[in-house]
Write a structure and sequence with these properties.
Layout lengths: L3 E8 L25 H12 L3 E5 H11 L5 H8 L2 E4 L6 E2 L3 E4 L3 H10 L5 E4 L2 H9 L5 E7 L18 E8 L5 E7 L2
Parallel strand pairs: 1-6, 1-7, 2-3, 2-6, 3-5
Antiparallel strand pairs: 4-5, 7-9, 8-9
Helix pairs in contact: 1-3
Protein name: Dihydrofolate reductase family protein
Pfam family, one: RibD_C
Organism: Kibdelosporangium lantanae
């Protein structure tokens, strides 16, 4: 069975929205000051270790606009990896090495996990991530806690039912971000 590893940037007050500064909230771009060379290398290695990037429509549209013409090791890894976009509105092949997956999200992703292939990586796509967490379809969750309070914005766990996860590790970065890694509990 294929495994889904989900990653999320979060502030101390639980905000996950607009870490890259795409204009979604007033204080967007809050994660940029914490992204250093080691973070970029880890992000690139994570992409290269997976064979599929899973995301929702909104995240696909944002990332495609922001990254499809970029260069460098991370951008090249993003261009290369096949992207699957769970959407009720998009269909068929998409630009930027992407394909739309239609149908109910949980059912579609459960089927994807049963199919052939290797690791699946996802980040952002908070609506999709919440759905997959509710249905216990995420195998590993990496929460990168950033040392700041934003005060506004979407929070990852709104509407997610209480659940236990198995703690794996806490990895601090030189910039003060601590990545907490958890495995899904049965």
């Amino acid at each position: 069975m294929r495994r889904i590893t989900a990653g999320v940037f979060v502030t101390l007050d639980g905000v996950v929205q607009d870490p890259g500064g795409f204009g979604e909230i007033e204080h967007g771009g809050w994660a940029l000051n914490y992204f250093d060379e080691a973070s970029a290398q880890h992000a690139t290695e994570s992409l290269l270790a997976s064979d599929t990037f899973l995301m929702g429509r909104s995240t696909f549209e944002t990332l495609e606009r922001a990254w499809s013409r970029n260069t460098g090791p991370y951008a090249e890894a993003m261009h290369k990896i096949p992207k699957l976009v769970v959407s009720r509105t998009l269909t068929g092949p998409l630009p930027w090495n992407a394909t739309a997956l239609t149908g109910e999200a949980a059912e579609t992703v459960a089927d994807l996990k049963q199919g052939p292939g290797g690791g699946i990586i996802m980040y952002a796509s908070f609506t999709l991530m919440r759905t997959l967490l509710k249905e216990n379809l995420i195998d590993e969750l990496n929460v990168s806690v950033h040392p700041l309070v934003v005060g506004e914005g979407k929070r990852l766990f709104d509407g997610v039912l209480p659940r236990s996860m198995e703690f794996v590790s806490a990895t601090p970065s030189a910039t003060g971000v601590v990545t907490l890694s958890y495995l899904a509990s049965a």
